[in-house]
């Protein structure tokens, strides 16, 4: 028999599970060995060997290999072996870099893997979806992605969108009874839920009947092999740039070789020098270093609680000019406590904070017992009845399982001695119409022990007011007169102006026990009263908003909450400037897209909005030229998250749908984390710029020193193996260390970067070329000086040129840390760089002074007094640069 044809008991028996306690841990372990993990097989990854060999597929490297073989034939064995060793070493480094990048991207994927709720050993636990086994009992609510194939056990208005499997985009209403359908398609199996489909409404529980490749999704998994990782715009741009640079480097090298040959150098010597030069000057490592810098940045971001799901977001973050953020839970703590209760024109206060159940009720500062206050007692009771939250109260943890708003209502009722167990004895919930942010309300149909049914609705007060025809006043149900309405509105506003989040509760007796629709249930209600709860702002948010403002980033609050509550919180957070506008969802409805666009820049708070409004807001801001970051958590937030330049989902309260649409997930749901992520995004980009600047200036220097020497009919200032050494050491470690550099002090005091800004913007191109000239010139100068002093000892002059080039680059690397000058920054801030430079210097000294290396690198020990010349020439470019900056400053002043 098929799963859908079985009754629940039969199905449970055949997967050997207990629907009340789930599986035991030992049973889960044994099922792993039997069924494996709940995973779809992925496409094969590139093997390590291929990745390693890939390092040598570069054309110039192959030519270099060829050239080395020729030199071996000519008897230059040492040369040949040394060159091959260096090229291999270079390949190993490239391989390690690439693998590291790949690994961290892989780790990222794991981090954002979906989680599911499963019943294990009688307790609900959150586990990664790959941990599910057949027989697991699972639960899910709107916004979740189903983790495996499931036979449903219970449903509450459950609707699931199965387009991934069936192509049908309309959600299917789910049931849980056995089905007697023959030849059914997946779409007809309404008592099943399938891996990868999306819960769009309601909630349900089920038991896993198939996992991994055995699921319906597994059978078509071949079609679903995910696309490769996305390259970021910068990576793409650098790839293009890389191609241009290859051509330029080749042309220049050819020029060096041509001029050299004309000047009388041997073709063989020039060929080998040329190829080495080309290998050194072509920045083949650039894309890998960029990926490593991105990946390392992403790891730093994880430590700061932001998880990047799409790599390009790292770059876009640095361009963000507006952050649109939810209020509840993101700017506030989501730790709600009911403090004020209002009914029939009377107002009570409740003491106590958080989940502490000791709290007292007062009326006009006098203590009261809720059970003696009928309206109060009823308001609290209904607040617990129309409520899906649970208090988990164990020794090791005390928390609310469910919506914090409902948690607050639950705790308030418990303070009055009302318990869930007590209520369950008196009432049965017949039906539940779940809360969603667009309806801003939730209802249940309950039945008491006498069989009488009634509706309880709770939700946004203004919404409930419009659904109520009656009101409970002076202990009886009265027609809602405008005077009542006036009083209710006043109390809503008075609560809201104290920054309280307000929930209204209404009810309606039903006649008979026939099934009624949601619309029918929520019509003509009796308004009962209000509960107001505090939800204090997160303490760090105010500072974060301030820092964003300094960084040219505007913060906009978007909330489903009441406009007055929203304004009060915005004021507490210093988010709303004097002339800043607050706009309500109803006004948003009236405005056309163009009209909204006109005023979008002035609005700082959008209140009582539905998730659908968010998309309109994102588009209007984008039309104004903004790069928009937008947060969200629910199913309906997904379109706006997707449309935003940086979609951000909440890690704790966010649904799978929101997370999947997002580029960034906040592990702690905290607004301040967005600011840190933006800062990190800016820093990563700046660091990439730093090492591009360093690498390219170094390469220009290397080429120019050779070119100048050839033009001046001088001997080769550097031998091929020295050039390759520079490429390996000087261009290797220090460049990597720049990728780990700390931000400059003014990073968050600049305007956001323009997204179209090119790699060489802000004078980077000029810096590269001018510095390249200076490095090349200084090296040649040192070479020329020594060579003219003693033309007989060419190797000595070459060793001096080599040292000058290396030192000039190692000094220049510190210049690259600042947009201004080397003296702006403390070099010891970045100890990676200091150590990278120290090790490069030691390696250089080894090559010069360690006798066994001398014949390989064609070096001669340099006498101490010549180091004065070397260091002087090497630091000359830095002093010239600093001097020119100073004089520019002087002129300005
Ligand atoms: P934000 O968008 O900043 O997260 P929010 O949490 O107030 O704000 P929603 O969750 O959409 O936004 O809630 C909108 C309104 O619906 C709330 O102001 C409240 O009055 C009401 N509400 C919130 N949660 C519930 C619930 N569980 N049941 C009934 N009504 C609710």
From TrEMBL:
The chain crosses the membrane at residues 48-71, 77-96, 244-262, 268-296, 691-713, 719-740, 768-788, 794-811, 832-852, 867-888. SUPFAM superfamilies: Calcium ATPase, transduction domain A, Calcium ATPase, transmembrane domain M, HAD-like, Metal cation-transporting ATPase, ATP-binding domain N. Keywords: ATP-binding, Ion transport, Magnesium, Membrane, Nucleotide-binding, Phosphoprotein, Translocase, Transmembrane, Transmembrane helix, Transport. PROSITE patterns: ATPASE_E1_E2. It catalyses: Ca(2+)(in) + ATP + H2O = Ca(2+)(out) + ADP + phosphate + H(+). It holds the Pfam family Cation_ATPase. One of its GO terms (cellular component) is membrane. One of its GO terms (molecular function) is ATP binding. Its main location: membrane. It comes from the Bacteria. InterPro entries: ATPase_P-typ_cation-transptr_C, ATPase_P-typ_cation-transptr_N, ATPase_P-typ_cyto_dom_N, ATPase_P-typ_P_site, ATPase_P-typ_TM_dom_sf, ATPase_P-typ_transduc_dom_A_sf, ATPase_P-type_domA, HAD-like_sf. Residues 2-76 form the Cation-transporting P-type ATPase N-terminal domain. It is a multi-pass membrane protein. Belongs to the cation transport ATPase (P-type) (TC 3.A.3) family. Type IIA subfamily. This is Calcium-translocating P-type ATPase, SERCA-type.
């Amino acid at each position: 028999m098929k799963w859908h044809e079985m009754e629940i008991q039969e199905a449970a028996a055949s997967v050997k599970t207990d629907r009340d306690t789930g599986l035991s841990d030992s049973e889960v372990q044994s099922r792993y060995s039997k069924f494996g993990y709940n995973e779809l097989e992925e496409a094969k990854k590139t093997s390590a060997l291929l990745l390693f060999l890939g390092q040598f597929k570069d054309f110039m490297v192959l030519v270099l290999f060829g050239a080395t073989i020729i030199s071996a034939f000519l008897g230059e064995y040492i040369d040949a072996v040394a060159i091959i060793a260096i090229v291999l070493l270079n390949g190993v480094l490239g391989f390690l870099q690439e693998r590291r990048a790949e690994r961290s991207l892989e780790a990222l994927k794991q981090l954002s893997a979906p989680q599911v709720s499963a019943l294990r050993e009688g307790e609900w636990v959150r586990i990664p979806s790959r941990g599910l086994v057949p027989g697991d009992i699972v639960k899910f609510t709107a916004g979740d992605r189903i983790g495996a194939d499931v036979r449903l056990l219970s449903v509450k208005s459950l609707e699931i969108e199965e387009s991934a499997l069936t192509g049908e985009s309309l959600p299917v209403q789910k049931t849980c009874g056995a089905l007697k359908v023959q030849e059914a398609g997946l779409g007809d199996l309404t008592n099943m839920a399938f891996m990868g489909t999306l819960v769009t409404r309601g909630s349900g529980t089920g038991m896993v009947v198939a996992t991994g490749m055995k699921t319906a999704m597994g059978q078509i998994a071949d079609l679903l092999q995910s696309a490769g990782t996305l390259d970021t715009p910068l990576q793409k741009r650098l790839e293009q740039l890389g191609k241009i640079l290859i051509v330029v480097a080749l042309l220049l090298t050819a020029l060096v070789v041509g001029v050299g040959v004309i000047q009388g150098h041997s073709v063989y010597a020039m060929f080998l020098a040329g190829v080495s030069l080309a290998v050194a000057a072509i920045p083949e490592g650039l894309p890998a270093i960029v990926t490593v810098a991105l990946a390392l940045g992403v790891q730093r971001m994880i430590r700061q609680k932001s998880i990047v799901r799409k790599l390009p977001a790292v770059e876009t973050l640095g361009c963000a000019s507006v952050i649109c953020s939810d209020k509840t839970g993101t700017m506030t703590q989501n730790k709600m406590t009911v403090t004020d209760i209002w009914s029939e024109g009377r107002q009570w206060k409740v003491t106590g904070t958080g989940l502490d159940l000791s709290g007292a009720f007062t009326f006009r500062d006098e203590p009261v017992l809720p059970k003696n206050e009928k309206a109060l007692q009823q308001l609290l009771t209904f607040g617990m009845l129309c409520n899906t939250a649970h208090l988990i109260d164990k020794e090791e943890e005390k928390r609310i399982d469910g919506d914090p708003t409902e948690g607050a209502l639950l705790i308030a009722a418990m303070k009055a001695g009302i318990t869930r167990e007590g209520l369950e004895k008196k009432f049965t919930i017949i039906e539940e119409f779940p809360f969603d942010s667009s309806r801003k309300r939730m209802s249940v149909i309950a039945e008491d022990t006498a069989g009488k049914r009634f509706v309880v609705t709770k939700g946004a007060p203004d919404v409930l007011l419009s659904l109520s025809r009656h009101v409970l006043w002076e202990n009886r149900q009265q027609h809602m007169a405008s005077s009542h309405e006036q009083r209710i509105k006043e109390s809503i506003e008075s609560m809201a102006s104290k920054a309280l989040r307000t929930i209204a509760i209404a009810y309606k007796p039903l006649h008979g026990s026939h099934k009624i629709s949601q619309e029918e249930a929520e019509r003509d209600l009796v308004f009962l009263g209000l509960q107001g709860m505090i939800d204090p702002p997160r303490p760090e948010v105010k500072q974060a908003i301030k820092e964003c403002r300094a960084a040219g980033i505007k913060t906009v609050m978007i909330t489903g909450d009441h406009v007055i509550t929203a304004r009060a919180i915005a004021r507490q957070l210093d988010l709303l400037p004097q002339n800043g506008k607050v706009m309500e969802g109803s006004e948003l409805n009236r405005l056309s897209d163009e009209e909204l666009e006109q005023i979008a820049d002035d609005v700082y708070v959008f209140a009582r909005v539905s998730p659908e409004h968010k998309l309109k807001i994102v588009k209007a801001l984008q039309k104004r030229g903004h790069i928009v970051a937008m947060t969200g958590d629910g199913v309906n937030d997904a379109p706006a998250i997707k449309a935003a330049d940086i979609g951000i989902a909440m890690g704790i309260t966010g649904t799978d749908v929101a997370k999947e649409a997002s580029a960034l997930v906040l592990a702690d749901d905290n607004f301040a984390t967005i600011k840190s992520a933006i800062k990190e995004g800016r820093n990563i980009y700046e660091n990439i710029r730093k090492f591009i600047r360093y690498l390219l200036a170094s390469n220009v220097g290397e080429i120019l020193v050779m070119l100048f020497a050839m033009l001046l009919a001088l001997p080769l200032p550097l031998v091929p193996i020295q050039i390759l050494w520079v490429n390996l050491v000087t261009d290797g470690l220090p460049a990597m260390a720049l990728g780990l550099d700390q931000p400059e002090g003014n990073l968050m005091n600049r305007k956001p970067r323009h997204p179209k800004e090119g790699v060489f913007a802000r004078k980077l191109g000029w810096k590269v070329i001018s510095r390249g000239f200076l490095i090349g010139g200084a090296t040649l100068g040192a070479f020329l000086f020594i060579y003219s002093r003693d033309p007989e000892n060419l190797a000595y002059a070459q060793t001096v040129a080599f040292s000058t080039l290396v030192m000039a680059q190692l000094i220049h690397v510190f210049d690259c840390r600042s947009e201004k000058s080397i003296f702006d920054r403390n070099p010891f801030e970045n100890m990676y760089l200091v150590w990278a430079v120290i090790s490069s210097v030691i390696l250089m000294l080894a090559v010069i002074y360690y006798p066994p290396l001398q014949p390989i690198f064609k070096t001669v020990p340099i006498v101490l007094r010549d180091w004065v010349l070397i260091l002087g020439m090497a630091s000359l470019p830095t002093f010239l640069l600093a001097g020119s900056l100073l004089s520019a400053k002087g002129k300005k002043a």
